[in-house]
Amino acid sequence: MGWFKRSPWVLHYNATSCNGCDIELIASLTPLYDLERFGIINTGNPKHADILAVTGSVNEKSRQVLQNLYDQMPNPKVVVAVGICATSGCVFQDCYNVQGGVDKVLQVDVYIPGCAARPEAIIDGVLKACDILEEKYARRKKEGRWAERP
Amino acid sequence: MNWINELMKSLSILERMLVFILFAPLAGGLLAGIDRRVSARLQGRYGPPLAQPFYDVIKLLRKERIIVNKFQDFNVVLFLLFTIFSGALFFSGADLLLTVFSLALAGTFFILGGFCVGSPFSHLGAEREIIQTVAYEPMVILMAVGMYQATGSFKVAEIAQYQAPLILSLPGVFAGFLYILTIKLRKSPFDLSMSHHAHQEIVRGITTEFSGPGLALIEIAHWYETVLLLGMVYLFFAFNPWLAIAMALGTYLFEIFIDMNYARFKWQLTFLSSWLFTAVAGVSNIIVLSLMR
Description:
The complex is a heterodimer of chains A (150) and B (293). With 150 residues, chain A is an alpha/beta fold. Chain A is 37% helix and 18% strand. Chain A has one domain: Rossmann fold. Chain B has one domain (3-292). Chain B has helices spanning 3-10, 13-42, 52-62, 70-91, 96-115, 120-151, 156-161, 166-169, 171-184, 213-236, 241-261, 267-292. By secondary structure, chain B is an all-alpha fold. The A-B interface holds A 3-4, 6-7, 29-31, 34, 36-39, 41-45, 47-48, 50, 74-76, 137, 146 and B 36, 40, 43-49, 52, 55-56, 58-59, 62-66, 198, 200, 203-204, 207-212, 215.
C-alpha cells in the first residue's frame, strides 16, 4: 500500500517568486481544486512536510533558507520546482544576484513549468512527486538507509 | 432498551479497559475523518477520504525518526500513556476525579514536550497550551463536582447507571463543559497552541519540533482524548444510552460547526471568556444545586 501517496504534506517556500506561482499554489487549496481530497495538506513546518514546493528562482539570500528547510525535513522527501523561474531561472537567470533554478541548490525531483504554473499542473506535479516519495521509501527498505543528502 | 448498560455490566473491569484501548483509536480516528470531511463540506470543498487520519498516522510512522533530544520522546510517550490511562479509568467505571486529574497530567507531559526543545515557536505554543489548560481546567473539575452533587458518587459506573436525567439538574455545568470542550478538542476559536488547519498559528505551535513517529503518537493520543471527552458528554444523558450516544455525536458536530464559523481568539479573550463562562454557568449551577437540597 502506498501510504506516502495517500497523505503527502506540502511545504511551500517562496525563493524569489513574483507571487504568481504562489497564488496558483494557494489556489489549488481552494474549493475549485481542493488539494485536500488527495490527502494533501499545506503545512508551514518543514519537520512535518514530505514535499518541498519551491516557487521562484534562487538567489544568494534564499539559497541558505532553502537548504536549511530541506535539511530539516525528515526522509523520505522530494523537491518540486513550481513554475519556470524555479525550473531554470527564466528571464531572471542573467541577473547579477540570481543563481538560477532550484536545481542549483537542491536535487529537484519534479519540474512544473508554466508562468504562472496552472493549478491543474501543480496538482499533477505534486501527485507525480508522491510516486517518487514511494520510490524513495522502497529504496530505503531495500538498502536499509536513507539516500545521502546532496 | 438498555443493552449498552447490560453490556457494560457484563464485562469485567479489565475487559472494559481492553475494549477502550483497542476500539477508542478506531472510533477517534473515524471521528477525526468525519471532522475533516464535514469541515471541507462546510467550506464548499470535496474533502479527503474518511480514513484520511489513519493514512496520515501510518505515513508518519514510516517517516524518518528525527528527535531533537531524548526528553522529547519520553514526554510524548508519557502523554500518550497517561491519556490512555485516564480513558481506561473512565471507561472501566472508576473515579471521575482521578480521570480528570490524570488527563491533566497527560496534558502536562505534552507541555513539557513542547518546552524541552529549543524552538521559540514550540515554546510559544507550550506557553499558550498552559494558558489553555488554566482556562479549561476549573470547568472540568466543576463538572466532576456537579455530577457528585447530583448523583452522590464520583464513580463513573454509578453516574452512568443513574436513572434521572443528569442534564436537567446540571444544565449550566453542561453548557460550561461544552464551552471548554472547544478548547480541549483544539477547535477554533481556541486553537491557539496548535491548529489542524491550513491557516495555522505560530508555525505548528507546540508540535513544531515533533516529526514522524512522535507526531503520530500525538495524533493517536488526540483520538483517545476525543473519545474520552465524548464519553464525559455521554454521562450527562446516561439515563437513556441511545439519546446519550446521539448527543455525544451531536456535540461533536456542533464543535465542528463552531470551528468553521469562528476566527481565532487572542489568549486574553480565551482565558477571560472561559473563566467567565465557568463562573456564570458552572459555579452558579452548583450553588443553585446545593441550595435546593
